[in-house]
């Protein structure tokens, strides 16, 4: 029975792989969002968003609470499919992949587009098991290969020296900052192209937060990173590109976007200026 | 509440709380007091010898074998159904599923059905319609249907108690629903699922009425699962009600039943402690 299921699964993946593969594209892909809207039941959460996020750079998404920043992230890896009554329209392309095409395989999409949440949630098993489960799901069965990818990802996130002697103990014993870095490492082990980060520092203390920030900066150039944050100083420090969202009549709208320098030093729109200088939001 | 009425209510409610604790302790003490003499005369012979003289003398070996067989078969039968319902409710958790509503209604109905009715219905279906007669199999299947609502309700609750974040993180890592359920959700809820099955088996062990009609009265050693067999609870009932002079062995059997439940309970506590030390559960 299990074999039948896995056969069925691999068949499906082979067919869809080609449609959803960004393997041929450069190491990281740009994200093109075109006339994209999201409705929750009768509420419009995002209206007509069109923006192109540059590859291999850190794009900060800023704006007040409820302006649809998280909804935008959830749309890029189609986590929004999990939210009942959410309906998306418009197009999002990651490299050559049409995310909302009916043929897009979500498993492959989400391997390529990793997501970091506000609240780090390691699975309540050992640190090693946290890597094993996703890697095995994505077809890496070989113990040695799993070990290599885990070690590399833990080194990339600076966690290796802190946990190398207790890979078999529970991930629940880690501190908040370590948990977040573990969650990032768990993603990196899958070799994604895009990283979506939804306020990854907001649940952490300043020191842990600084470490995550350094980590994100060290990943620049290797992944296309979309970074949602409430913290304008943080956005200023790390972003290459910035997009400013605002809430109009309960609906999130994209007000202005451009290089981070331009947005932070000479915003074109009055709302952006007010928000950045602290007069609004 | 800092007013006089508030304090009065506090005292009253505390009295009820103390009262219920005292009531339970008194009941437990009276059970222990009655079973103590029986426990003192317990020995391995009682567990390993065949009964004599309609259960008045000898041991309860066949009864223990039947009990264990019925318990294991009924839990094994209930297990796939429980997992099926858990999985189905997991993949449909955001939808208004007609089937899930129906399942929930049935669980409530089954949970409030008197066990004697289960006995009659179980005998009519498994015994007569499927032709298993009075047998360990009929008893085990009937018991499986009986503990099923209990198991499903407890395990559903344990899965609902997990943070939604696990599902979200699993999906974000590209795990299929199948993997998310069997590799993340079930292992994460495993300690609670074990507790559900321990409570389920304690309930199954203490069941009498449903088994009177299904697994039968026979005191003989069952040669296969198609033979009738008597569980400890049924044995206690029979010795106490139908066998003059059987009281002594009824108490001894009751002591064995309680010990059995304590062992199962202790084993699960022990396992849980081990897992907790390994940091594998909260």
- How many structural domains does the protein architecture of chain B include? 2
Q: What class, by secondary structure content of chain B? A: mainly alpha
CATH superfamily of the largest domain in chain B: MetI-like
Overall pLDDT of chain B: 86
Number of continuous helical runs of chain A = 11
Q: Identify the quaternary structure here.
A: heterodimer
- How would you spell out the order of helices and strands of chain A? HEEEHEEHEHHHHEHEHEEHH
* Strand percentage of chain A: 15-25%
Anisotropy-based shape of chain B: globular
Written account of the structure:
The complex is a heterodimer of chains A (281) and B (282). Chain A has 281 residues and is of the alpha/beta class. Chain A is built from 11 helices and 10 strands. In chain A, the strands form 2 sheets. Chain A has a 6-stranded mixed beta sheet with strand order 6-7-8-3-9-10, sandwiched between helices. Chain A has a 4-stranded antiparallel beta sheet with strand order 2-1-4-5, with helices on one face. In chain A, a hairpin with a 2-residue loop joins β9 (241-248) and β10. Mean pLDDT of chain A is 84; it is low at 1-26. With 282 residues, chain B is mainly alpha-helical. Chain B folds into 2 domains: 2-40; 46-277, Orthogonal Bundle (MetI-like fold). Helices cover 75% and strands 1% of the residues of chain B. Chain B has a two-stranded antiparallel sheet. In chain B, a hairpin with a 4-residue loop joins β1 and β2 (57-58). In chain B, α3 packs antiparallel against α8 and α8 packs antiparallel against α11 (247-277). The longest helix of chain B is centred in the first third of the chain and has 37 residues, at 4-40. The relative contact order of chain B is 0.14. The mean pLDDT of chain B is 86. At the A-B interface, α3, α4 and α7 of A face α7 and α8 of B.
């Amino acid at each position: 029975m299990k074999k039948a299921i896995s056969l069925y699964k691999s068949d499906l993946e082979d067919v869809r792989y080609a449609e959803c593969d960004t393997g041929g594209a450069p190491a990281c892909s740009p994200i093109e969002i075109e006339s994209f809207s999201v409705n929750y039941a009768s509420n419009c959460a995002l209206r007509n968003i069109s923006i192109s996020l540059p590859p291999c750079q850190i794009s900060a998404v800023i704006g007040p609470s409820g302006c649809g920043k998280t909804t935008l992230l959830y749309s890029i890896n189609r986590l929004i499919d999990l939210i009942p009554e959410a309906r998306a329209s418009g197009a999002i392309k990651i490299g050559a992949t049409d995310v909302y095409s009916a043929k897009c395989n979500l498993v492959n999409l989400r391997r390529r587009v990793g997501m970091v949440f506000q609240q780090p949630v390691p699975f309540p098993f050992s640190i090693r098991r946290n890597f094993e489960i996703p890697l095995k799901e994505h077809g890496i069965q070989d113990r040695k290969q799993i070990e290599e990818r885990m070690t590399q990802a833990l080194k990339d996130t600076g966690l290796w020296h802190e946990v190398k002697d207790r890979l078999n103990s529970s991930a629940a014993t880690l501190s908040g900052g370590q948990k977040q870095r573990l969650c990032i490492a768990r993603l990196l082990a899958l070799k994604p192209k895009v990283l979506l980060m939804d306020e990854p520092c907001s649940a952490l203390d300043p020191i842990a937060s600084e470490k995550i920030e350094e980590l994100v900066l060290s990943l620049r150039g290797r992944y296309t990173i979309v970074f949602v944050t409430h913290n304008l100083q943080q956005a200023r420090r790390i972003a290459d590109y910035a997009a400013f969202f605002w809430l109009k009549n309960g609906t999130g709208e994209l007000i202005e976007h451009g290089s981070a320098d331009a947005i932070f030093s000479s915003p074109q729109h009055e709302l952006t200026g007010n928000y950045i200088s602290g007069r609004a939001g | 509440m800092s007013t006089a009425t508030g304090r009065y209510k506090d005292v009253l409610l505390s009295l009820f709380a103390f009262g219920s604790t005292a009531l339970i302790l008194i009941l437990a003490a009276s059970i222990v007091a009655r079973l103590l003499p029986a426990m003192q005369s317990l020995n391995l012979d009682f567990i390993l010898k065949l009964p004599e003289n309609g259960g008045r003398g000898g041991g309860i070996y066949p009864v223990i074998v039947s009990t264990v067989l019925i318990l294991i078969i009924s839990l094994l039968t209930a297990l796939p159904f429980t997992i099926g319902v858990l999985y189905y409710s997991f993949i449909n958790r955001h939808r208004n599923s007609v089937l899930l509503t129906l399942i929930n209604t049935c669980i409530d109905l089954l949970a409030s059905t008197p066990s004697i009715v289960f006995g009659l219905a179980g005998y009519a279906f498994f015994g007569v319609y499927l032709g298993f007669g009075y047998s360990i199999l009929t008893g085990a299947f009937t018991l499986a249907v009986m503990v099923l609502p209990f198991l499903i309700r407890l395990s559903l609750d344990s899965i609902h108690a997990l943070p939604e974040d696990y599902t979200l993180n699993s999906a974000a890592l590209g795990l299929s629903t199948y993997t998310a359920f069997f590799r993340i959700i079930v292992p994460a809820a495993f300690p609670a699922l074990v507790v559900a099955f321990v409570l389920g088996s304690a309930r199954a062990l203490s069941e009498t009425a449903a088994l009177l009609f299904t697994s039968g009265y026979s005191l003989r050693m069952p040669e296969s699962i198609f033979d009738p067999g008597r569980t400890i609870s049924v044995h206690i009932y029979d010795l106490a009600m139908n066998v003059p002079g059987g009281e002594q062995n009824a108490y001894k059997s009751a002591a064995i039943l309680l010990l059995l439940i304590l062992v199962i309970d202790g084993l699960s506590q022990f396992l849980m402690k081990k897992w907790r030390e390994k940091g594998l559960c909260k």
